[in-house]
Write a structure and sequence with these properties.
The chain is mainly alpha-helical. The protein is built from 3 helices and no strands.
Length: 91
């Protein structure tokens, strides 16, 4: 005869807890400090990273990719030679 009042074992409690915890955690700030670089365009891109503090994890990728593209564009612009101005004497 089995005892109907037997407590569930650890594996059964874990399985029951996993079924109850099916909702993802709410977004929470990571607490990562962002320091200014002194370069306005770079600082603007880095400031966008604060947006992920208020997004669920599946929304982070879009922000990270956008910031990465912006920072790459800023770095690429450093390699570009400035176009000559109309009054520059290049001869």
């Amino acid at each position: 005869m089995s005892d109907a009042t037997t407590e569930p074992g650890p594996d059964e409690r874990e399985a029951a807890g996993a079924a109850e915890d099916h909702e993802p955690a709410a977004p929470a700030p990571l607490g990562v400090a962002r320091e200014l670089t002194g370069h306005a365009a770079v600082d603007a891109h880095l400031a966008r990273l604060a947006e992920v503090d208020h997004l669920p994890a599946d929304g982070h990728l879009e922000v990270y990719e956008d910031v990465h593209r912006g920072l790459r564009a800023e770095l690429t612009s450093l390699d570009a030679h400035p176009a000559p101005r109309p009054h520059d004497n290049r001869s």
